[in-house]
Amino acid sequence: MSHTNDHWKTILQRGANALSFRITSPPTAVKPTMVAEPAPQKRALPVLVYHAVAVCALVDGWVAGGEGEVLIDRPAVLTRQKLANAKAAEPPGSTQSPFSTGYAADYRLELARLAWLAIIDDPPARLEALATAYTPPEPRVKLV
Fold this sequence. Notes:
The chain contains 5 helices and 2 strands; from the N terminus they run H-E-E-H-H-H-H. The chain has one domain. Helix 1 crosses helix 2 and helix 1 runs antiparallel to helix 4. The chain starts with 7 loop residues before the first helix and ends in an 11-residue tail after the last helix. By secondary structure, it is mostly helical. It is globular, with a radius of gyration of 15 Å. A two-stranded antiparallel sheet has the order 1-2.
């Protein structure tokens, strides 16, 4: 593996792009709550990208809570709130709106940036340590 750190940001961006966002609050909630979770993949991800997905989902939890191992700045919180509001405004069963797509892309960049700040001191070790700290949400059971 290379000793330079020029590939880590790309790995983190790939990890952030492999996330999907869903609203967990009821439709009548005043303030929507959202969770980031690994999106279903058509083929297996490389190990580093798989760890990056876990780290980006963990960083999403930090942004949602307002605190974590890195300083959570206001633009990240506002971008997440815009995405949550756009996803909550979509009617159930409809296709994703252009607003949700744009806000999701913007928020994924924020997640990759914050994840880089979390692993910058020792990328390989910190990526693995943070990935093991991530606990995925409970699987959704679809009752038909």
